[in-house]
Amino acid sequence: MIEINCDLGEGISDEELIYPWIDAASIACGGHYGDEKSILKSMELALKYDVKIGIHPSYPDLENFGRKSLNIPIDELIKSLKIQLDLFLKVAHPLHVKLDHLKFHGALYNDAAKDKNLAEELVSFVHSQLPQIPILVPPFSEMQRAAENSKHPIRLEVFADRTYTDDLKLLDRSQPNSLLTTLPEVENHISPILNQGQLISNSGKKFSIQADTLCIHGDNPGILSFLPKLRQKFWSKLS
């Protein structure tokens, strides 16, 4: 069954209301948002609602919420990712959290999807630190290729609330309709994914696609208006 994952621990006010409707949470760990207190709160909520817990590292960029590409040396980036990982594990250990996955955030996720060298560096880092933990990666991306070449476990992720271009990249957030925020928008996007294994781009092109997990952003302003309804409509059929 395709899971629903959500990026959380990012300072939204109604986070607890999201957990009952998702399978997995990717929790921010200080790169783009978060500190020990926020990580602990999100982990406790995930445990309360029996939601799988993943780590959600980012470019070290609190100012731009990790959504701006940073041209920083790879050793500086890896150093920051290690700090984020250590912070996450420091909080997780006393709670006996079983780490489910790792997912890179925002601009780092998008950059690594198309940059072969960056993808290989990130996969190498994760493989050295968490060799058994799956990385969430976009289908047909450099991250998928790098992970498969390293024989590192992956889960293929498609965004339920983002529009895709004809090259299967996410439509830039500066463009209209890049983020889907209403029930009809998200339902029209995920219905062919769930029912036909097809992703439809912003120009209407259809692509055969495999997805293990669908992501909905925790800071999507419409999430609580559409997520419960979609969960009940589509996932009750799949269970």
From TrEMBL:
<dbReference type="GO" id="GO:0005975">
    <property type="term" value="P:carbohydrate metabolic process"/>
</dbReference>
<dbReference type="InterPro" id="IPR005501">
    <property type="entry name" value="LamB/YcsF/PxpA-like"/>
</dbReference>
<dbReference type="Pfam" id="PF03746">
    <property type="entry name" value="LamB_YcsF"/>
</dbReference>
<protein>
    <recommendedName>
        <fullName>Lactam utilization protein LamB</fullName>
    </recommendedName>
</protein>
<dbReference type="InterPro" id="IPR011330">
    <property type="entry name" value="Glyco_hydro/deAcase_b/a-brl"/>
</dbReference>
